[in-house]
Amino acid sequence: MIRVPAVLAVLSSLVFGTGAMSQEFQSPVDVSFLAELDGTEQRYVVLLPTGFDSDVPHDVMIALHGHGSDRWQFVNDKRPECQGARDTARRQNMIFVSPDYRAKTSWMGPAAEADLLQILDELNGRFRIRDVVIAGGSMGGTAALTFAALHPNGVDAVVALNGTANLLEYPNFNEAIAESFGGTKTDRPDVYRERSAEFFPERLTMPVAFTTGGKDTLVPPESTLRLFEKLKQQGSPALSIHKADGGHETDYVDTMAAFKFVFDQLDAQRAARTPPALSTFDKDTTIVCLGDSVTGVYYHTGGYRAYPEMLELGLRKAHPTASIRVINAGISGNTTNDGLARLEQDVLRHHPDLVTISFGLNDMTRVPPDQFRTNLEQLIDRCRARQSLVMLCTPNAVIHTESRPIPRLIEYCRIIREVGQAKDVPVCDQYVAGERLKSRAPQTWRLTMSDEIHPNMDGHKRMAEELCRSISGAEVSLDSIEPPPALARTKVQLTGGNTLKIVAMEPIAAFVQSALLQQQADAKLEIIPWPITGKSLSELEQSAKDLVRATKPDLVVLMIPATETTDFETSVHAISWLMNWSLSFGHQEWDCIVVHPSVVDPMTDPEQGALIRRLVHAQHLDLIDRKPGDTAAADAIVKAWFQAHIGQ
Questions:
Q1: How many separate domains does the chain show?
Q2: Cβ of 187: how many Cβ atoms within 10 Å?
Q3: Which of 355, 449, 363 is nearest to 400 (CA)?
Q4: 327 and 455 inside one domain
Q5: What is the per-residue pLDDT for 13?
């Protein structure tokens, strides 16, 4: 059985919560997952805003409960801190998440920290997440500061209501904290120190708001006030609402003031972004995307579209009445040298309003930095000479390899930014966007990669979203865009009375043959069975490499088997390349579909099944799947799918 993090776990335990929940959100969903840390069942509650639109990114609020409570405190409680957090999330149209984080004595110990990292990864996989605001009261306020100090790259703002910033000096709840931290402050002072935000003010550069009470004996305010002073001294955006006569509570007005401060800061940061490259779309607009294999259409994204095609869909979604055309001018293996050589033929002859230029992954292997800089400058000058606007793009984030080491890629990204600044050309920083996702949701990011350097279609959708924002200022989500219509080549062959050559894994091959003959009794079929029994995913990956492209079929039918492995990376690599090798190199020359193993074996491990679904979706291939509760035989499911896609 594949041990997959909860980011991939099937959320089969969605339970609607109970309690006095107002109608400001959809019904709360209680999510259970297996903790990657220790395999225990853990939970968190998700509240989606009423009218939730999955086609736009959303901010997330992580609300952390106090000592002795659990995930339902911030969902149901009427106390001012909880009501204020919910009201803020509702007004900001946020996704509201309240985790147990090892309730009821959490204190953001190592296990609670691991759970929250896992939850954030899972949320980034399910939704398009913009900013993350972490908040809490009492123990939750302490935990919010702790988590932000431990993972500053994963948090965009903090609201700490009546929390402490120094657990070494904190006098209360010693037994509970010792249990959470794996020992007392005498036994494990390093753990207590690393979880005390006061010692790490330099990490808290995001907006932070504190509330404290001068007469609070449960969580004394001194350490939090000291931390606030340190943040002021270093110039970080921070607010302290201190009531000298206050106790261990924050009233509604102060709660809302704390949240307002951090959102005012976030709004100011967004307003300070580089203005969009195109301010209006009131005339026919042509954009040409010049680049290498990441720009072009190849097997990594299913062979039909890449981020330029997704960009056109995103811009049309943001500007539905505009006439927008995006032309893909990406070619595998190209450098800026090649871009200069084909600029006239592939780009300028289209008279583009805007040219996006994305090179670097190949340049870093064979074009010296100074030449790379000069080439970019010449590309910009030649486009401007033809009255085309220009936007530079840094390459996507990658997996480190000897051939493309990350430090060298960072150097080439720096050159791109410097050229953009010197030439007054905007830069869409795909590398920073990718690294941001990688640091916040490493499993989710890994599942956007087809190989070490090429994103799959999920990665390309995210790149197109970033480019759409940089070009037009609009924030969209392209996650719901489906693959092109399936079986185009198959239909042509059947309609023309030609022999249909099919490479199909066993035992699906016989089902496919029967399904096609049911649709067209006189169909000419050449079935090439693909044995899979007893083969590992790695062996199947190699057989795909040897078989499919050499055969040049009309249709490939994969059934990725539920083989046993404990290595997540090995599974992702093998499944991705099993699909990659089953596609032609560039624009697709044949159809390729995937059959989920649950079609043949309804008892397929749900974690592995979720991984397969996720990767097929990311590759932008069609999937024949067994719906929950469906008890039909495998051949019936296959026949029904072909009927729906070929039916006469």
A1: 3
A2: 12
A3: 449
A4: yes
A5: 36
